[in-house]
């Protein structure tokens, strides 16, 4: 990625799902949104088996905390929806 | 002609709404479910984006379950999932959009992105039967005078700064009025007890209006007459008097710009939509103007005035029946979304 030195804080997560369908769905749900501060946060989403792989590169520790916080809130909402609203 | 069912999800401000609507041929639209939960802050506090989003995240799943139970239908009977694309506050809008996308993928249902303002207009038209009114859309976030022409809801006049509802809500915080059920409702109740009119800035500029001066003016009046009055003013005025004066001034401005738009297009009716549209004093003032012009006034009750999910389902289903589907890539939300950006395919 360009300008990697500007985004020194890197986080890589592997979120396990029950199967690759769910992992891919989660990726599709998260994909459309752009990060608000694209010069300070870069995100890459991919799927490996039944894991959703999320890679973030952030400009500062604070940006990393804020970004990860928001990511987990969103992830929680998506997973909870998949779990709780599967038999409407 | 088959019947259609739409699920509507709304969360652009502090109200979270889930609605399910049924369209059967040649019948008025049927509300199968219209549930709402409001994020209410303590007196003196407004609602902040991240807290509002947190509220929506914690209520949306149970609200959706309850809506399906109330409507007594299954998701397989639903034709499309409609959600508010904007305008509104980013974080809360986004949390609702995420759920819409998730459900769309889980159940393979098409998504429909809806403009919040168009939702208000279409629900107002459906409930009241108003044919082609001038629409006054007034809420905490929006103040627009709208008329339909050639496939667009055209904005004839609007606030140049803050919405009338924002002016009311912020004043409510200053005089510590409760936000339960809403600050505007409590200001309305206070205003009925007002007996003295205080002169406040009245700002109409052609087809548009401005409320920031009115807000500054009423804040200054609160300081001079309530909080730090001079000896001759001490105890003379009450907060009811200020609530009364604020409403009279702000609403008169709205009546003026509505009337100007009516004269411009030769309209014979007015439809008031949006949360501030619940206000009985505003309805009364507007009806006096309409009576003078031989025009009709249409308004809805709090089920439909205040932000709700059914209006999103209604506007969404109208668009869906005319082919408007939203791809996942396009299902992002936006804080700014002009009413006239929407192509109104379902009207001539």
Please, could you describe this protein's structure?
- Chain A contains two helices and three strands.
- Chain A is α+β, with helices and mostly antiparallel strands.
- The model of chain A has no long low-confidence stretch (mean pLDDT 94).
- Chain B is an alpha/beta fold and 348 residues long.
- Chain B folds into two domains: 156 residues, Nucleotidyltransferase, domain 5 (2-Layer Sandwich); 173 residues, Nucleotidyltransferase, domain 5, CATH 3.30.420.40.
- Helices cover 42% and strands 20% of the residues of chain B.
- Chain B has ten helices and twelve strands.
- Chain B has a five-stranded mixed beta sheet with strand order 3-2-1-4-5, with helices on both faces. In chain B, strands 8-7-6-11-12 form a five-stranded mixed beta sheet, sandwiched between helices. In chain B, strands 9-10 form a two-stranded antiparallel ribbon.
- In chain B, strand 4, helix 2 and strand 5 form a beta-alpha-beta unit.
- Classes of the chains: A alpha+beta (88), B alpha/beta (348).
- Chains A and B meet through helix 1 and helix 2 of A and helix 1 and helix 2 of B.
Q: CATH superfamily membership of chain A, which one?
A: Alpha-D-phosphohexomutase, C-terminal domain
Main beta-sheet annotation of chain A: 3 strands, antiparallel
Give the fraction of residues assigned to helices of chain B.
40-55%
Name the beta content range of chain A: 25-35%
Return the CATH topology of the largest domain in chain B.
Answer: Nucleotidyltransferase, domain 5
The ordered string of helix (H) and strand (E) elements of chain A is: EHEEH
């Amino acid at each position: 990625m360009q300008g990697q030195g500007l985004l020194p804080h890197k986080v890589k997560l592997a979120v396990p799902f029950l199967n690759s369908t769910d992992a891919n769905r989660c990726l599709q749900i998260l994909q459309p949104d752009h990060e608000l501060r694209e010069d300070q946060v870069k995100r890459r989403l991919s799927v490996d088996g039944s894991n959703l792989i999320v890679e973030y590169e952030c400009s500062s520790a604070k940006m990393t905390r804020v970004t990860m916080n928001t990511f987990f809130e969103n992830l929680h909402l998506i997973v909870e929806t998949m779990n709780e609203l599967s038999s409407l | 002609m088959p019947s259609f069912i739409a699920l509507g999800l709304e969360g652009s401000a502090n109200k979270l709404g889930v609605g399910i609507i049924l369209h059967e041929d040649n019948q008025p639209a049927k509300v199968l479910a219209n549930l709402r939960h409001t994020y209410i802050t303590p007196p003196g506090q407004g609602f902040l984006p991240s807290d509002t989003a947190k509220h929506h995240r914690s209520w949306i799943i149970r609200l959706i379950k309850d809506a399906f139970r109330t409507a007594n239908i299954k998701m397989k009977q639903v034709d499309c999932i409609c959600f508010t694309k904007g305008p509104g506050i980013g974080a809360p809008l986004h949390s609702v959009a995420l759920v819409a996308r998730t459900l769309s993928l889980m159940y393979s249902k098409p998504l429909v992105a809806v403009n919040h303002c168009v939702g208000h207009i279409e629900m107002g038209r459906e409930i009241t039967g108003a044919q082609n009114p001038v629409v006054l859309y007034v809420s905490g976030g929006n103040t627009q005078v709208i008329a339909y022409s050639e496939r667009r809801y055209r904005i004839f006049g609007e606030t140049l700064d803050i919405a009338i509802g924002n002016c009311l809500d912020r004043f409510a915080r200053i005089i510590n009025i409760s936000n339960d059920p809403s600050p505007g409702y409590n200001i309305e109740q206070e205003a009925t007890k007002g007996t003295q009119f205080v002169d406040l800035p009245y700002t109409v500029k052609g087809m548009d209006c401005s409320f920031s001066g009115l807000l500054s003016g009423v804040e200054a009046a609160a300081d001079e007459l309530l909080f730090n009055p001079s000896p001759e003013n001490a105890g003379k005025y009450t907060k009811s008097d200020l609530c009364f004066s604020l409403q009279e001034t702000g609403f008169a401005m709205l009546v003026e710009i509505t009337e100007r738009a009516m004269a411009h297009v030769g309209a014979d009716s007015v439809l008031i939509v949006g949360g501030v549209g619940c206000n009985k004093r505003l309805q009364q003032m507007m009806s006096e103007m309409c009576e003078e012009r031989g025009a009709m006034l249409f308004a809805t009750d709090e089920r439909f005035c205040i932000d709700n999910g059914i209006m999103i389902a209604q506007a969404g289903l109208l668009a869906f029946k005319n082919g408007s589907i939203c791809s996942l890539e396009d299902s992002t939300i936006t804080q700014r979304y002009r009413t006239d950006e929407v192509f109104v395919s379902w009207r001539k």
